[in-house]
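User: Please run a holo structure prediction.
Assistant: Happy to. Please share the sequence and the ligand.
User: Here you go; the ligand is zinc ion.
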Amino acid sequence: MKEYRVTVEQLGKIKDMENTEKPIKCCLCGEDIAVTPTGWRYGNNPQPLTDNDEDRCCDLCNSTKVIPKRIEGMFASKNKNIE
Ligand SMILES: [Zn+2]
């Protein structure tokens, strides 16, 4: 019977592979999305600025474009209710 134990060394190699993966591009400005200290490299969800579920955006675009758009959308739907 074969053993499928993963050593600490092997785990380290898997981590290195993850770190050398190509950075994800921001779909709004085209810049590479920075990896956070916790290892999160997928940035933010750019909806409603895109319809593509796979699109991701950087922190800068998230705070300067996505969040204002969401707030705008909130106000727009509020106004609709008043009419
Ligand atoms: Zn961006």
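Residues 26, 28-29, 31, 57-58, 60-61 surround zinc ion (CB under 6 Å).
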